[in-house]
Amino acid sequence: MNSLIRRKEIISHIAKIPRPIKGVELANIFGVTRQVIVKDIAIIRAAGVNIIATPEGYMITKEESRYKKVLALSHKEEEMVSELEIVIKFGGIIEDVIIEHPIYGEIKANLMIRNLNDLDNFIDLYKKNKAKPLSALTEGIHLHTISTDNEQDMQLIIENLEKAGYILKD
Description:
The structure is a single chain. The chain contains six helices and six strands. It is of the alpha+beta class. The protein folds into two domains: 3-60, Orthogonal Bundle (Arc Repressor Mutant, subunit A), CATH 1.10.10.10; 67-164, 3H domain (Histidine-containing Protein, Chain: A), CATH 3.30.1340.20. The strands form two sheets. It has a four-stranded antiparallel beta sheet. The chain starts with a helix and ends in a 6-residue tail after the last helix. The relative contact order is 0.16. GO terms for molecular function: metal ion binding. Ni(2+) binds at residues 75, 83, 142, 144. This is 3H domain-containing protein.
């Protein structure tokens, strides 16, 4: 299979499945290495296809009529799970985490945490790798793009994050 056909098939495959798919899984399906898949994904992205890499794998994001807001937050590392649970509890999707690094500028990581299962998988990966959150580089200060089905759900998320003391104030 030539690379152009493989890339079209990769797009089709990712678009068909309702969950993120790991690069190694795509490599097995197409009989290539994971590095070939990473290169293919980069070329596909450059062509304008909205494929993102999450901790759970690749997925194509669909532009939906969801209500989105970027929230500025600050908390201790041990409060991370509590913060994410608040967003999930009220129907929010944590699309990403963004920090402003003094040397590298904006650093953004796609998360796409949509439910408790996604959160559990994220936390398991976080613990397994003994990782530090990006906000550890900025003394707990970070941004999240949050999306909800409606403005009321977003307001509940904001109110509860404020109540917990996580919303960054002037």
